[in-house]
Amino acid sequence: MTVLSPPRPAAIERALRDTRTWCAGHTIDDRPALVHALRVAVTIGQHVPAPAQDVIVAALLHDAPEFAPTESDIYQTLTANYGSEVARIIATLQAEHRALDEPDPPIRVDDQPVLLASTADKIVALTSLLRRAQSTGNASDFFDRRSALRGLLPYFRAFQRAAHPRLPASMSAHLDAALTPIERATACTQGAGAREQRHAR
Q1: How much is the pTM?
Q2: What pLDDT, on the 0 to 100 scale, is given for residue 187?
Q3: Within 10 Å of residue 127's Cβ, how many Cβ atoms?
Q4: 65: CB partners within 8 A, 6+ apart
Q5: CA–CA dist 78, 65 (Å, integer)
Q6: pLDDT by residue (tens digit) across 80-113?
Q7: Is 104 helix (H, G, I), strand (E, B) or coil?
Q8: How many other CB atoms are there within 10 angstroms of residue 17's CB atom?
């Protein structure tokens, strides 16, 4: 049983329908965007007993601003269909996503609904990347080709540490378990690079 198992509340049923429509044809981490959205929602439910419906709906729809048709204001649509809190959570998550492209992205952990959705999003994304890396047989090489991700690892670790007191212990541990093997794989890569530089001198 997950938070998405039937019977489902009407709002979650609508969110599933809209997510299927808006995610169609899109991918995240080389997998269907719909799968990512479902896993984020389910991950919240794995760690939070009886999570607020707005958080699950927002988790399902958190990538809607990127994928939904642009003919209308997506936040007006979200507010009309799901309420202002869902729209607010999604807008905050989108701002966090955009900040990852900037130097020293801020770490905010004081907004609990956003924190739960953001942590679940990171767990799913990092777990997916780790699974893909391991499937290649050479995780270090996989991450060596992803300099942007390597540059964000200190941010992800700082986020995990800052969020730890505010998260269910199992959720913080899940994020740590997704992050630690990637840090180890990239440490091996960085160590090899340093050795090559020394030998080249």
Answers
A1: 0.91
A2: 86
A3: 20
A4: 74, 75, 90, 91, 94
A5: 10
A6: 999 999 999 999 999 999 999 998 999 999 999 9
A7: coil
A8: 11
